[in-house]
C-alpha cells in the first residue's frame, strides 16, 4: 500500500468534511494539504483513469467550454471534472479527494480539467493529458499572469514534452494559439469562425498579437473578429491561419441573447440555435464540439446538448426580480469585457450597473478598464450605476468616456447598489450587471436573497 | 479672448506599446484640453513613420510587451535626434514603464543582452527576478511641487497634495545618473529600483515613471501641469479654466487607501 497516498487522501477527506460542516467555500484547501503530504497525489490518481485526461485552458471561456464539454461527454462516459473546484492543481486534487475512495481509488472513465493558464505546464506534468484544448490568450490580470508572450513561451516548452499520441485542439483564429502547433508533432484539430464579418458593433481593438510569431513581420488580417482573433497571414513567411476542420458560419446574434450558427464539420453542415450570446461563446461551442466529436460522440447528439446548455454561473445569467429583468455578465479583462459591451450595445436602451473590485482574483491593477471600449455604450445608456472597491476609478473611466453620471449613482455596498438600481428602473426594464470576479460573488448573494422569481438559476 | 489655442499630441507606438492600460493618459490629456476649449490634434506615430515633419507639443509613450519593446527599440533609434531636439526646445513628454525604459541609455536583460535606448534620460535599467507589482504612491520632487500647484485649477478642491498614485508592474530596476532628477520619492511601493526610494525621472519637460493606473485620470494636478507646460512653449504662461475634479480626487484617494492596506 502507498502509505503517503493514503495519508494524503485521508487528510484531504477529513479537511473537506470539516469545511463542509462549517459551511466554508474553500474548495482548494483539501487538495492543497493532500499535495503537501504527497506531491504526486494528482499524478498517482490520474494514472487510474482508463481514458486519461482532457485539459481545457485559455484566458477567456474555459469555464463555459469545460461545462459544455462535460455535459456532452457525460452521455457516454463517467467524467470527473473540477466543476466546483479551482482550476489550479490544488483544485484538481480537491476534486479527486471528493470523488475517490479512502484508499485513493477513482472510478471514472475520463477526467476533464479546466486549467488556469499559468498552471498549464504543471497540470500537463501531473495529469498526463490525452487531449489539450487551447482557446485563446489575451492580456489578463497582468499583475498575476504577466504578459501574453511570456505565458505562450511557457506553454510552448510544456507542449514540446508531450507524447505524440496526444491530441491538441486549437483555436485557429488566434495566431498566438495556432502557432503552438509548431511545438508539437502529434495530432492537431483546429476550430474557428469562418465568417469574415460578425454583425456586432466594432470596438477599439486590444490586439495582443500583431506580428508574426515566426518572423516578426506585421500580420495581415483579412478579417479581424475580436481583438487579435481573425483571419490572418504573414506577408513574409508561410505562417497563416490554418483551415479549421470544425467551423461556424452564418452567425446570427438574436435580440433575446441566443445565437444561431451553421456548424460545419467536413462537408456536413447543421444549423444550431443555442441560448448563449456573443462571439466568444461561439468559440466555446466549437471547442466543446471538437472535443466531444473526437471522443466518439456523434454530431446529432452534440448539437442536442448545445441547444439545451445553460451557461456557467454568472458568465451570462438571466434573473427576474419584481418584474425587472437582470442580466449578469462577468467581466475580467479588456478582450472579454469588449465582447460583452458589443452584445449590450446591440440593445436600444441600456441600464447598467458596473461593479469593479481589485482583489487578487480580480487583478489588483484596474488599469485594464482604460483598455476597454466603454465609449461604444455612451449614447445607449439610460441609467448607469457603479459599485465595488474601485468604484471611483470606474466612475472616472465613464466620465472620460463621455457618460453623464452623478456621484449619487455610485454606491459603496454591492447589495444596496443592486436594490437601489432596481428601484430606479420602471417595470419591464432590464438591468445589466457587469461585475468583476469577486464582485460576482456579492451579486450572487443579493440575487439569492431577493430572487423569488428566478427564471434561470443554476447553483454552483 | 484670443483665438483658440491648439496643441499637437504625438502618441508614440500606440499599436505596440498599448498593453498596460496607459491609453487613459492620452484620453485624459485630450479631454481636459477640450473641456477648456483648447483644440487638440492627435497623431499616432509608429514603426517606420518619421517624426521629422512634425512639431509636437506633447509626446506620450506607454508600456508594451517585451517583444514589442524590442521592435520599438530598434525603430526608436531613428527618432532619437528628433526627440532630443524637441525636448531640448521645451516639448513635453510623458513615458511610462516600457516607454520610460527605452528612453534611457540601455536595458540589460536578465540574460545579459543589451537593448539599446536613446539616452534621453541619464539612466539605465537592469532586468531582475524581483517582480515589483503593487500600488505605488509617490511624493513629487520638491522642485516641481510649486509649479504643479500653480498650474492646477479646480472649482471645488483645495489642492492638499501633489502626490502621484498609480500601479507599478515591472521587474527591471532603474538606476539614475547625475544628469537626471527623480520624478519623486517613493512613499509606498518600489519605484525605480526598489532600493533607493526614487521613482521616475525628469529631464527638462520629459518625464518617465512606472505609474500605470492610468496615471493622468486620477492625478489631475499632474495632467494639468503637463497641459500648462505644453501650452507654454507656444502661448506663454496660461492660466487654465478650472474644472470640477471631484470624481478624480475620489478615485485618487480610494487608490491611496488600497495602497495603505497592501502589505
TrEMBL record, chain A:
E.C. designation(s): 6.3.5.13
This protein's pathway: Cell wall biogenesis; peptidoglycan biosynthesis
Active-site residue numbers: 365
Reactions performed catalytically: beta-D-GlcNAc-(1->4)-Mur2Ac(oyl-L-Ala-gamma-D-O-P-Glu-L-Lys-D-Ala-D-Ala)-di-trans,octa-cis-undecaprenyl diphosphate + NH4(+) = beta-D-GlcNAc-(1->4)-Mur2Ac(oyl-L-Ala-D-isoglutaminyl-L-Lys-D-Ala-D-Ala)-di-trans,octa-cis-undecaprenyl diphosphate + phosphate + H(+); beta-D-GlcNAc-(1->4)-Mur2Ac(oyl-L-Ala-gamma-D-Glu-L-Lys-D-Ala-D-Ala)-di-trans,octa-cis-undecaprenyl diphosphate + ATP = beta-D-GlcNAc-(1->4)-Mur2Ac(oyl-L-Ala-gamma-D-O-P-Glu-L-Lys-D-Ala-D-Ala)-di-trans,octa-cis-undecaprenyl diphosphate + ADP; beta-D-GlcNAc-(1->4)-Mur2Ac(oyl-L-Ala-gamma-D-Glu-L-Lys-D-Ala-D-Ala)-di-trans,octa-cis-undecaprenyl diphosphate + L-glutamine + ATP + H2O = beta-D-GlcNAc-(1->4)-Mur2Ac(oyl-L-Ala-D-isoglutaminyl-L-Lys-D-Ala-D-Ala)-di-trans,octa-cis-undecaprenyl diphosphate + L-glutamate + ADP + phosphate + H(+)
InterPro entries (alphabetical): Lipid_II_synth_MurT, Mur-like_cat_sf, Mur_ligase_cen, MurT_C
Chain residues that bind Zn(2+): 212, 215, 234, 237
A Pfam family assignment: MurT_C
GO molecular function (one): zinc ion binding
Keywords tagged on the record: ATP-binding, Cell shape, Cell wall biogenesis/degradation, Ligase, Metal-binding, Nucleotide-binding, Peptidoglycan synthesis, Zinc
Domain of life from the UniProt record: Bacteria
SUPFAM superfamilies for the chain: MurD-like peptide ligases, catalytic domain
GO BP annotations, alphabetical order: cell wall organization; peptidoglycan biosynthetic process; regulation of cell shape
Domain Lipid II isoglutaminyl synthase (glutamine-hydrolyzing) subunit MurT C-terminal: from-to ranges: 330-440
Position of the signal peptide: none
Domain Mur ligase central: 56-197
Family: Belongs to the MurCDEF family. MurT subfamily.
Function: The lipid II isoglutaminyl synthase complex catalyzes the formation of alpha-D-isoglutamine in the cell wall lipid II stem peptide. The MurT subunit catalyzes the ATP-dependent amidation of D-glutamate residue of lipid II, converting it to an isoglutamine residue.
Assembly, per entry: Forms a heterodimer with GatD.
Protein name: Lipid II isoglutaminyl synthase (glutamine-hydrolyzing) subunit MurT
Species of the source: Candidatus Curtissbacteria bacterium RIFCSPHIGHO2_02_FULL_42_15
Highest classification ranks of the organism: Bacteria, Candidatus Curtissiibacteriota
Amino acid at each position: 500500500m502507498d502509505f503517503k497516498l493514503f495519508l494524503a487522501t485521508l487528510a484531504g477527506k477529513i479537511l473537506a468534511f470539516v469545511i463542509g460542516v462549517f459551511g466554508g467555500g474553500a474548495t482548494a484547501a483539501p487538495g492543497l494539504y493532500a499535495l503537501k503530504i504527497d506531491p504526486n497525489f494528482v499524478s498517482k490518481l490520474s494514472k487510474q483513469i482508463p481514458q486519461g485526461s482532457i485539459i481545457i485552458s485559455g484566458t477567456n471561456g474555459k469555464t463555459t467550454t469545460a461545462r459544455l464539454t462535460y455535459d456532452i461527454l457525460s452521455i457516454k462516459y463517467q467524467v470527473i471534472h473540477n466543476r466546483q473546484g479551482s482550476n489550479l492543481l490544488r483544485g484538481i486534487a480537491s476534486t479527486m479527494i471528493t470523488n475517490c475512495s479512502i484508499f485513493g481509488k477513482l472510478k471514472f472513465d475520463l477526467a476533464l480539467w479546466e486549467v488556469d493558464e499559468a498552471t498549464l505546464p504543471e497540470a500537463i506534468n501531473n495529469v498526463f493529458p490525452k487531449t489539450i484544448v487551447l482557446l485563446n490568450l489575451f492580456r489578463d490580470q497582468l499583475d498575476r499572469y504577466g504578459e501574453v508572450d511570456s505565458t505562450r513561451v511557457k506553454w510552448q516548452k510544456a507542449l514540446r514534452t508531450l507524447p505524440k499520441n496526444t491530441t491538441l485542439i486549437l483555436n485557429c483564429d488566434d495566431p498566438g494559439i495556432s502557432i503552438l502547433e509548431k511545438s508539437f508533432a502529434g495530432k492537431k484539430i483546429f476550430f474557428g469562425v469562418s465568417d469574415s464579418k460578425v454583425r456586432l458593433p466594432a470596438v477599439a481593438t486590444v490586439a495582443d498579437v500583431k506580428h508574426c510569431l515566426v518572423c516578426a513581420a506585421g500580420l495581415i488580417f483579412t478579417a479581424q473578429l475580436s481583438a487579435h482573433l481573425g483571419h490572418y497571414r504573414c506577408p513574409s513567411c508561410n505562417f497563416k491561419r490554418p483551415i479549421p476542420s470544425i467551423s461556424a458560419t452564418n452567425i446570427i446574434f438574436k435580440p433575446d441573447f441566443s445565437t444561431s450558427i451553421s456548424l460545419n464539420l467536413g462537408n456536413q453542415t447543421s444549423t444550431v440555435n443555442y441560448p448563449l450570446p456573443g462571439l466568444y461563446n461561439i468559440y466555446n461551442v466549437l471547442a466543446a464540439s471538437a472535443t466531444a466529436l473526437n471522443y466518439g460522440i456523434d454530431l446529432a447528439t452534440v448539437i442536442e446538448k448545445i441547444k439545451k446548455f445553460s451557461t456557467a454561473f454568472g458568465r451570462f445569467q438571466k434573473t427576474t426580480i419584481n418584474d425587472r429583468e437582470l442580466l449578469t455578465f462577468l467581466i475580467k479583462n479588456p478582450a472579454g469585457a469588449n465582447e460583452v459591451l458589443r452584445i449590450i450595445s446591440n440593445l436600444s436602451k441600456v441600464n447598467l450597473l458596473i461593479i469593479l473590485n481589485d482583489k487578487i482574483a480580480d487583478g489588483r491593477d484596474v488599469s485594464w478598464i482604460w483598455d476597454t471600449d466603454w465609449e461604444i455604450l455612451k449614447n445607449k445608456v439610460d441609467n448607469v450605476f457603479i459599485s465595488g472597491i474601485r468604484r471611483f476609478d470606474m466612475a472616472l473611466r465613464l466620465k472620460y468616456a463621455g457618460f453623464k453620471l452623478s456621484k449619487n449613482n455610485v454606491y459603496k455596498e454591492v447589495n444596496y447598489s443592486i436594490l437601489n438600481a432596481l428601484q430606479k428602473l420602471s417595470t419591464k426594464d432590464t438591468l445589466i450587471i457587469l461585475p468583476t470576479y469577486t464582485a460576482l460573488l456579492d451579486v450572487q448573494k443579493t440575487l439569492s436573497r431577493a430572487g423569488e422569481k428566478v427564471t434561470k438559476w443554476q447553483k454552483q | 479672448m484670443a483665438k483658440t489655442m491648439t496643441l499637437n499630441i504625438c502618441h508614440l507606438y500606440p499599436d505596440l506599446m498599448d498593453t498596460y492600460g496607459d491609453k487613459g493618459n492620452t484620453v485624459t490629456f485630450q479631454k481636459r484640453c477640450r473641456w477648456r476649449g483648447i483644440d487638440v490634434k492627435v497623431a499616432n506615430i509608429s514603426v517606420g513613420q518619421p517624426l521629422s515633419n512634425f512639431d509636437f507639443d506633447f509626446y506620450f509613450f506607454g508600456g508594451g510587451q517585451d517583444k514589442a519593446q524590442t521592435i520599438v527599440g530598434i525603430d526608436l533609434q531613428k527618432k532619437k535626434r528628433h526627440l532630443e531636439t524637441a525636448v531640448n526646445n521645451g516639448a513635453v513628454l510623458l513615458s511610462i514603464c516600457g516607454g520610460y525604459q527605452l528612453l534611457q541609455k540601455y536595458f540589460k536583460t536578465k540574460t545579459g543582452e543589451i537593448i539599446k535606448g536613446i539616452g534621453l534620460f541619464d539612466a539605465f535599467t537592469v532586468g531582475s527576478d524581483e517582480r515589483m507589482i503593487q500600488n505605488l504612491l509617490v511624493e513629487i520632487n520638491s522642485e516641481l511641487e510649486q509649479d504643479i500647484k500653480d498650474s492646477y485649477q479646480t472649482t471645488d478642491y483645495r489642492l492638499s497634495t501633489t502626490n502621484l498614485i498609480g500601479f507599478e508592474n515591472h521587474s527591471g530596476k532603474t538606476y539614475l545618473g547625475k544628469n537626471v532628477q527623480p520624478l519623486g520619492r517613493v512613499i509606498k511601493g518600489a519605484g525605480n529600483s526598489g532600493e533607493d526610494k526614487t521613482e521616475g525621472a525628469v529631464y527638462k519637460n520629459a518625464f518617465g515613471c512606472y505609474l500605470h493606473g492610468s496615471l493622468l485620470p486620477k492625478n489631475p494636478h499632474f495632467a494639468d501641469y503637463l497641459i500648462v507646460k505644453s501650452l507654454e512653449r507656444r502661448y506663454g504662461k496660461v492660466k487654465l479654466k478650472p474644472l470640477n475634479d471631484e470624481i478624480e480626487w475620489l478615485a485618487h484617494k480610494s487608490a491611496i487607501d488600497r495602497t495603505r492596506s497592501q502589505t
